[in-house]
Automatic annotation (TrEMBL):
Source organism: Pyrus ussuriensis x Pyrus communis
Alphabetical list of CDD domains matching this protein: QOR2
SUPFAM superfamilies membership: GroES-like (SSF50129), NAD(P)-binding Rossmann-fold domains (SSF51735)
Protein name per the record: Probable quinone oxidoreductase
Top-rank taxon: Eukaryota
Pfam families xref list: ADH_zinc_N
Amino acid sequence: MKSDNSSHRYFDCVEACGVVTAVGPGLTGRQVGDLVAYAGQQMGSYAEEQILPANRAVPVPPSIDPKVAASLMLKGTTAQFLLRRCFKVEPGHAVLVHAAAGGVGSLLCQWANALGATVIGTVSTKEKAAQAKEDGCHHVIIYKEEDFVTRVKEITSLRFCREGYGSLEVLKLRGYMVSFGQSSGAPDPVPLSAIAAKSLFLTRPSLFHYAVTREELLEAAGEVFANVASGILRVRVNHTYSLSEAAQAHADLENRKTSGSIVLVP
């Protein structure tokens, strides 16, 4: 893929969107000029050009802005497997989302709300609390000011929780605690006795294992794009950097100075 004057290529860590400029010999299904996106596998999106395996390139519908597609692929398909496959959220469930104002968190809150769940989000500032509220959180907890375990217990017992090992205390019988991604570092050890007390489920899934086949990847991306097109999901591209600022963009991500999504543009 390569950027040109009419269709820019946008970047977000290990996800990107761009125009196909050449295809390998004998390849069918993709052609020069197609707008495609990828996520999760094939490192190196901080680049002007990239060679991609054809089975990882997902066609982007005309209704989706390339910048949105670039910022959506990794986080959107992550939200999809967390809410629809790792644990199928349904009406009546209560969901706790840590870092609710982040890129994945924002999508999780909107999608879980649309599925009929009670959504509780934790954030670090009042500004992020306002965003989480807009994104569908029924209850927002500023964890620097409140004890989220106490607050969640006051609200409800959870069936599903994203990250935060203190969250084990607020899960109901047979609840799910899901930790994913590397931004928070390695998780602390959890004694089996803490899980057995309520027959809890603890998992640390990866998108790599939920989008192994091309069929799985296309199904996940298709559902995400459809939810954006229908208005269920609003993608917040809150930060834009030039490609020459890639190092600063990466540092801001690691230091939690961003909310929503960031993209790099040529």
